[in-house]
Every structure is written in C-alpha cells, then in structure tokens.
Amino acid sequence: MTYPWSTSYKRIEAQYCLADVALETKKHVNKKTLDEIDPYGNALELIQHETTHFRTLKYLTWGICVPARCELRSVERLLGTVLTRSYLGTNGLRPRIQVQETCQRPDDSKQFDVLFYSFV
C-alpha cells in the first residue's frame, strides 16, 4: 500500500517497547476476599485486591509502538501522561512505570540460544 506522502517524507522508523505498570493509590482500600467483591462496586477495591492464584489487576504489562528515536525515559513519560489523563488517573491511581531495556525494532535480528533450538 502506498501512501500519498511516501515520496515526500522519510519513512518513520518505529520500535516496540514493553512497559511494566504498577497502579498505586494513597486512598485507603479495604481488603476483601474474592467472594466479597461487588461487581457494581468501587473499581479501586477490585484493582487493589490481592490473591494467591493470579496476578493482581494493579500490575499491567503494556506494549507501545513509538518512533525509534525515543529513549526509554521518553516512553515512560508518554505512558505516564496517557495514564494520568485516563479514567485511572482521574480516580487517584498513580502509575509507576518501568520500560524494559530491550525495545524491538523491525530490522533487529533475533538471537536464540541452544535451548530454543533444542526445543524446536
């Protein structure tokens, strides 16, 4: 597919980064068991609910596609701005974001170890 601007502008190089997001709040939330959670209740209670069987909802892993020139700190700031302006931010949740150092680019070659090849 050719775009109208493909001849007049340079191609945008992109990278795909994974970010670990922890949603934190200073509000006091009563701890409840899974049986006590009201599906029509406060979302903060559900997000802060901790269980031994699965990952809590306050820990997220987000993927983001950004220009290849963006540094890790810029990606963290971008995600922080998006989250604080969203529904989560307006309800008092503050994101703590850490972008993994290995953002992937389309032209990067993949490095596989012996364990991968022995499994295949």
Helix/strand layout:
Blueprint: E1 14-24, H1 43-48, E2 59-67, H2 72-85, H3 87-90, E3 94-99, H4 114-119
Antiparallel strand pairs: 1-2, 1-3
List keywords for this structure.
single chain, Nose-resist-to-fluoxetine_N, 120 residues, 3-stranded antiparallel beta sheet, 3 strands, Mth169, Chain: A, alpha+beta, Nose resistant-to-fluoxetine protein N-terminal domain-containing protein
In short:
The protein is an alpha+beta fold.
How would you characterize the overall build of this protein?
There is one protein chain. The protein contains 4 helices and 3 strands. With 120 residues, it is of the alpha+beta class. The chain has a single domain (14-104), classed as 2-Layer Sandwich (Mth169, Chain: A), CATH 3.30.1280. It has a 3-stranded antiparallel β-sheet, covered by helices on one side. The radius of gyration is 20 Å and the shape is extended. The two termini are 35 Å apart. Pfam families: NRF. InterPro entries: Nose-resist-to-fluoxetine_N (IPR006621). Residues 8-79 form the Nose resistant-to-fluoxetine protein N-terminal domain.
| CATH topology name | Mth169, Chain: A
Order of H and E elements: EHEHHEH
Question: What form results from the Cα inertia axes?
Answer: extended
The number of domains is 1
> C-alpha Rg, in Å?
20 Å
Largest sheet: 3 strands, antiparallel
Average pLDDT reading: 77
CATH architectural category: 2-Layer Sandwich
Q: Pick out the low-confidence regions.
A: none
What is the strand content? 15-25%
- The tally of beta strands, per DSSP, is 3
Q: Assign the CATH class.
A: Alpha Beta
Pfam families: NRF
Domain Nose resistant-to-fluoxetine protein N-terminal: 8-79
Protein name: Nose resistant-to-fluoxetine protein N-terminal domain-containing protein
Organism: Diatraea saccharalis
